[in-house]
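Review session, final week

We close the course with one last complete record, chosen because it touches almost every idea we covered. It is Major facilitator superfamily (MFS) profile domain-containing protein, a protein from Virgisporangium aliadipatigenens with 485 residues. Go through it on your own first, then we will talk.
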Amino acid sequence: MRMSGVTPGGPPSPRKGTSGGGGAAFKIKKTYSVIVFIVLASLDNVAIQLVPPLYDPIARAFEVPEGVVAVVTAVTYLVTAVAAVGWAFAGDRGNRRPLLVIGTILWAVGTAATGWAPGLTVFVIAQVVGAIGLGAVGSVGFSVVSDLISPRRRGLVMSLWGLSQGIGTLAGTLAGGLLGAADWRRPFQVMAVTGTVAAVAYLFTADIRRGESEPQLAGVEYDHRISREQLPEILGRRTNVWLVLQGLSAQVTFGSFVWLPRLFQARAEEQGYDSATAVAIGAVFATLFQLGGVLSIIGGLVGDRLQRRTPRGRALVASAGILGGVPFFVGLFFLPMRVHIDEGSVPLGVLKSVYQEPTVAFALLAALSGLALTSANSPNWFALIADVNPPEHRGTVYSLGNLVNGVGRAAGNGLVGLVFSALARSLPPPANYAVGLAAFQVFFVPTGIMYYMASRTSPKDIDEVREVLAARAAEAGVRPSSSPP
């Protein structure tokens, strides 16, 4: 059997009671912990997304081209991904809660320093410090959440986990554009306070045991931990290879999406709105058009349902969703839109434009459809990582995938800025942004293909994980529960 490495913790032992002692008090604490993890997964994405809507005012404040600020953002994505590998490996070996507290404090400090930065150098350093802390929240948090979810409901619950991150992205775009329209430093100051409160909230979460939701480990105190010698074993699982590599091409496209506010800002400026109003319009439009991500819950439910019928189900749903969203996004980028902002608030004016201007309504429909399809990727990716890996490997595999995601996202965010600049020589804004964003949709094609390949390898890997967990439970003298279909 391929996953047979011996870990420092030795064989599992029979579990005496539930984690934390059981009872109503622990159930309340466990529910509180789930809420904290989901909220914090959202907040770290708010922090990540604050800068892109403010490229223009930050660049003007530091007297540098917008592309320089975009490159800083690309670097922070990469730093977050690299740091996550170290955080995750440490989490898979030891106590995860202190790591989450430390990581949250770091990103709060980095965010506060960003809002205070007097020049570009301090701005870059602050962003990097915050990025290191952000690496802990996603990778270690995923490991904890995966231990709370039974295999039958992984798609649904992971869609909520992913949705919280999507909401954070939307909130970051909106907060950056609205709070930062007049003063770009304000949203960073607000988030710094929020991060400090979050770090305190972590201190009261429950200590969730590894493998707590696995049917094969019912009644077992699971003591296995990852070791460096097991890294080749992890990379030897073919499904892991496809799940990790798909992020390289997928995130090139997703990375380019951070420029959506800039596309809509340019369209507003073309209509004659001043810079501050145009920034706010761009942020509101980008937020409104990304609401389709809420439908990731449907993608998770469909993945759960199809997975019970065939072990290829989750990967097939992700493949179809990624490829199906491409034409809708291309339509979104090229649809002409006009917005009517009176003396009232920008958000209200944008909402009125949805029913006053048919092109805005069509653009909203295209955005919702495209995001509803591509968002099926997220919950099924999370769930597949948990399905094809034992508990002590999940955080590390997630972080390796996140590292490749970070490389792809950094490449997409950085390269698309260069493409926009090159296109601007012959295509004035907003046409250069529309053409550039549409061209980057081509990277979704290899992503869909790799998910299809994962659908062919995942059945074998899932069966092997179940066999390994059942064997470990048998070593402890506990008869495991039957595996889910």
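Two points worth writing down before the exam:
The longest strand covers residues 13-14.
Residues 141 and 198 are 13 Å apart (CA to CA).
Good luck, everyone.
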